[in-house]
Structure to design on (448 residues):
């Protein structure tokens, strides 16, 4: 029996044992969705580098591990407690999950305007399943990838964010996932659903953090529904344990005049894969995708973006930067697909990368697939090293080489951070970025 079929069989057996305890197991539509998802995974197995979309990312280390799929029966708290792992700046409203379960002591969702709801995914499944039946899996089909299939089969945690029409949610909504129970190697499958009604406004921040040296899998799916004239800002900060694995799919569907802004930073995890898909279904929709990825040591990080311009007179912009040091490896694959009827499309894509060592590697593949005539589209990618003249200049001013390299590296990353239009988030995320850059610890005192 091949490794692929062995892994598929292991997950199928685990699903049969786990299914009766999963949220909503009494709901026929959800049982059917879960069963269809595990069947799809059983047929496909995990992807390999022979699959075009996984050409540069080998998930064999995930496939080989026998992750525990059941939630821990009791929480084993590391030194400092889970609260010590909640990032600074996560003000209310904030929903905190520790090892796949809501921690009500750390969470605070009381300060919510009328028309805004932030709820535990499990609670919504059990008490308001009609809302999810109309949405779950409609934006991210279970069979889209092997990992989305696993998420659909095993999802038992996560959050649902709802904003009523013409409502401004105000302060950003923080969703914090603290993972890495030391008792075993565990897989987590959180599902996040964000629904903004017509004319609504909301900002959602996803934080993923882990206990030091913990080995686990985060397999996340986020579905975003942006109604006519609504605006959604989505921020993601991935700071998983550097021995963990993080795989995430985010997909947004935009109605007429809607806007979606994604800002994603990947700093942690031994292997991280981020899929970001946006569909501009109706006229005058627009999206902006910004991101920063850092790969140190032997880290591997892969960003795949896909923007579907289906309707005319829509706009998309992408700006991503990558930094790789040590034996780190970064991957960026950005695709923009302009459909035949999507005239007057404007789409621009930029990817810039910085190599800090001889053994670091970055692969970049920007793509434009255009089937319309009246469009304005551009894309470009660069890979370079630190400016030796600037480095020499700083050293002649008495600045140690490691600090000088750190300053230039932070300068490269800083303009991505500065694109965040909320000062509180800019500071929180900027601090996280600085902490993960080579020489960042020495820079903190200088910048402060």
């Amino acid at each position: 029996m091949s490794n692929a079929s062995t892994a598929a069989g292991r997950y199928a057996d685990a699903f049969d044992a786990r299914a009766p305890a999963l949220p909503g197991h009494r709901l026929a539509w959800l049982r059917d969705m879960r069963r269809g998802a595990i069947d799809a995974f059983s047929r496909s197995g995990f992807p390999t580098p022979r699959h075009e979309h996984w050409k540069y990312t080998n998930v064999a280390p995930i496939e080989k591990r026998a992750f525990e799929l059941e939630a821990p029966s009791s929480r084993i708290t590391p030194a400092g407690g889970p609260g010590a792992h909640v990032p600074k700046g996560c003000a209310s409203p904030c929903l905190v999950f520790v090892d796949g379960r809501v921690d009500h002591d750390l969470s605070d969702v009381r300060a919510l305007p009328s028309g805004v709801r932030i709820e535990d995914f499990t609670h919504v499944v059990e008490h308001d399943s009609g809302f999810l039946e109309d949405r779950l899996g409609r934006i991210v089909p279970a069979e889209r990838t092997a990992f989305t299939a696993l998420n659909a089969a095993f999802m038992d945690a996560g959050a649902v964010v709802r904003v009523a029409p013409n409502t401004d949610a105000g302060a950003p909504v923080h969703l914090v996932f603290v993972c890495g129970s030391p008792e075993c190697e565990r897989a987590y499958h959180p599902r996040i659903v964000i629904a903004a009604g017509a004319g609504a406004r909301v900002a959602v921040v996803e934080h993923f953090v882990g206990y030091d040296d913990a080995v686990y899998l985060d397999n996340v799916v986020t579905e975003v529904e942006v109604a006519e004239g609504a605006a959604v800002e989505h921020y993601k900060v991935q700071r998983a344990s550097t021995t963990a694995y993080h795989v995430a799919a985010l997909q947004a569907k935009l109605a007429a005049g809607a806007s979606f802004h994604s800002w994603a930073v990947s700093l942690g995890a031994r292997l991280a894969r981020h899929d970001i898909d946006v569909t501009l279904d109706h006229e005058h929709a627009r999206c902006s995708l910004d991101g920063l990825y850092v790969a140190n040591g032997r880290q591997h990080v892969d960003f795949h973006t896909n923007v579907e311009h289906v309707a005319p007179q829509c706009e998309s912009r992408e700006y991503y930067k990558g930094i790789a040091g040590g034996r780190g490896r970064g991957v960026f694959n950005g695709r923009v697909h302009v459909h035949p009827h999507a005239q007057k499309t404007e789409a621009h894509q930029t990817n810039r990368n910085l190599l800090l060592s001889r053994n670091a590697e970055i692969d970049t593949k920007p793509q434009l697939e255009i089937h319309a005539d009246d469009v304005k589209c551009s894309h470009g990618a660069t890979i370079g090293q630190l400016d030796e003249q600037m480095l020499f200049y700083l050293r002649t001013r008495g600045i140690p080489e490691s600090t000088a390299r750190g300053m230039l590296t932070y300068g490269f990353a800083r303009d991505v951070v500065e694109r965040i239009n909320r000062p509180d988030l800019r500071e929180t995320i900027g601090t996280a970025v600085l902490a993960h850059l080579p020489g960042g610890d020495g820079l903190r005192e200088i910048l402060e």
